[in-house]
Write a sequence for this structure.
């Protein structure tokens, strides 16, 4: 019946009302109006419901509390802290960037930011539930362990580049891309060269927070995940 009414609407030049009138004259019931929502130039359907956990890469459902996972994550975070502290001490005590590759630190920063964005986007639905109090404290912790780990890594290691750049020599020169500058000048250029892309990658996530859902940003999450993998290699 819907198929027949659709063909009739084409015969009447797309005039749905005329097609419905003709159909009624033949003693047939016209198809429901929502079948012609597109022809009427208006959306006759209600907005689609949020996808289920099977239809999206976003983490929609929470995980049950598991102490073992919490303990392992805490140990991993402590390992991150233990690895970062010597770097800070060496830079501050020796007051030199010797032994540090600013290029490697810049790439590490971009990789950390993309990894954190990837995890934040995918876990955003769970984060909202935790903020609203829809989840228990233990369930929140178990569900967001990966986010805690990547955020801690980014927060601890991102400033290392800035600290190393501060102690770069202002007298030694080096040639980069055909231009000769001091090491400190190159360090400053390198700082903005990797911080600006990081800000550009993070800016659209503000739109996700304002809109309040992860589902429209799954593709961006895949892109940030690909960037992280490429930088890791």
């Amino acid at each position: 019946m819907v198929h027949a009414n659709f063909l009739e609407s084409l015969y009447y030049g797309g005039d749905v009302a005329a097609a419905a009138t003709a159909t009624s004259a033949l003693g047939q019931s016209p198809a429901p109006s929502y079948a012609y929502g597109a022809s009427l130039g208006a959306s006759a359907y209600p907005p689609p419901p949020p996808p289920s956990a099977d239809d999206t890469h976003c983490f929609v459902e929470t995980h049950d509390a598991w102490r073992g996972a919490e303990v392992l994550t805490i140990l991993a975070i402590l390992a991150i802290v233990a690895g970062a502290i010597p770097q800070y001490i060496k830079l501050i005590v020796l007051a030199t960037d010797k032994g540090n590759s600013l290029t490697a630190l810049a790439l590490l920063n971009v990789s950390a930011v993309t990894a954190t964005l990837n995890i934040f986007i995918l876990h955003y639905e769970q984060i909202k539930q935790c903020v609203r109090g829809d989840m228990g404290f233990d369930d929140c912790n178990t569900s967001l362990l990966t986010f805690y780990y990547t955020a801690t890594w980014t927060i601890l290691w991102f400033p290392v580049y800035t600290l190393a750049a501060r102690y770069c020599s202002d007298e030694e020169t080096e040639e980069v891309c055909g231009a000769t500058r001091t090491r400190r000048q190159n360090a400053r250029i390198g700082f903005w060269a990797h911080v600006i892309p990081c800000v550009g990658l993070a800016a659209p996530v503000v739109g996700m927070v304002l809109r309040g859902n992860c589902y429209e940003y799954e593709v961006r999450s895949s892109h940030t995940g690909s960037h992280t993998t490429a930088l890791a290699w």
Observations:
- The chain is about 65% helix and 5% strand.
